[in-house]
Amino acid sequence: MSYYVVNQDTSRLNAYELSSVTVGEVAKNASDGIVAPLLCYALGGIPAALAYCFVDAADTVMGHHDDMYEWLGKIPAFLDDLVNLIPARLTAWGIIIAAMFSDANVSMAYLVWWNEARLSDSLNAGYPMSSMAGALEIEIEKFGHYRLGAGHRHAEPSDIPRAVRLLYATATLTVIGLFFLITFIHLVQP
C-alpha cells in the first residue's frame, strides 16, 4: 500500500530510507494538500479549489509514466505542474519561515532550497522538499534520482514528527497570510 502513497517501491527500504521518503512526502503534501487548495480558494472561491483538486487527482491517477496512461496522463501532469508553480514556491517559503518558530534551522532551510530545489525530477516538488531537508538538516533522497540536503545526516524516524510540526506551522502561516490576502482583495474591490 505504501508504494501508492509515495510512488516508489518501499518494500526494500530500511528505516533511514523510509524516513527520508516520508519526510519528503510530508513536504510535498504541504504544498499539494494544504497551500495550493487554500490559495486557489482565496483567489477563486470554491470553484477554483475544486478545479485544483480535480487536476491534482487526475494527475495522481493518470499522470504516471507507464504504458497504459503514457499519453492520457500528459495533460493532467502538465496542468498539475502549471497550477502548482506558485504554491510549491510559497510552501518552500512557508517552511523556511515556519522554521523560525520551531526547532529547525532557518538558514540551512534557505540555503538548501536556494541551491538544490531544482534537483528533483519534478518541476515543483523539489522546492518544499529542499527547504524541509535544510530545515531538518537531513537528506531527502529518491534513490537513483535525486538527493536533497546532500551532506547532512540521514533521515531518522524521529524526523517525521518534526516534519509534521513544520507542516502544521506552514499551514498556520498559510491561513494567516491568505486571510490578509482575502481581506486586501475585498478592500480594493469597489
TrEMBL record:
One of its GO terms (molecular function) is threonine-phosphate decarboxylase activity. Pathway: Cofactor biosynthesis; adenosylcobalamin biosynthesis. Keywords: Cell membrane, Cobalamin biosynthesis, Membrane, Transmembrane, Transmembrane helix. InterPro entries: Cobalamin_biosynth_CobD/CbiB. It holds the Pfam family CobD_Cbib. The chain crosses the membrane at residues 34-55, 90-113, 166-188. It is a multi-pass membrane protein. One of its GO terms (biological process) is cobalamin biosynthetic process. It is found in: Cell membrane. The keyword Membrane applies. GO terms for cellular component: plasma membrane. Its main location: membrane. The keyword Kinase does not apply. Signal peptide: none annotated. Belongs to the CobD/CbiB family. This is Cobalamin biosynthesis protein CobD. It comes from Entotheonella factor.
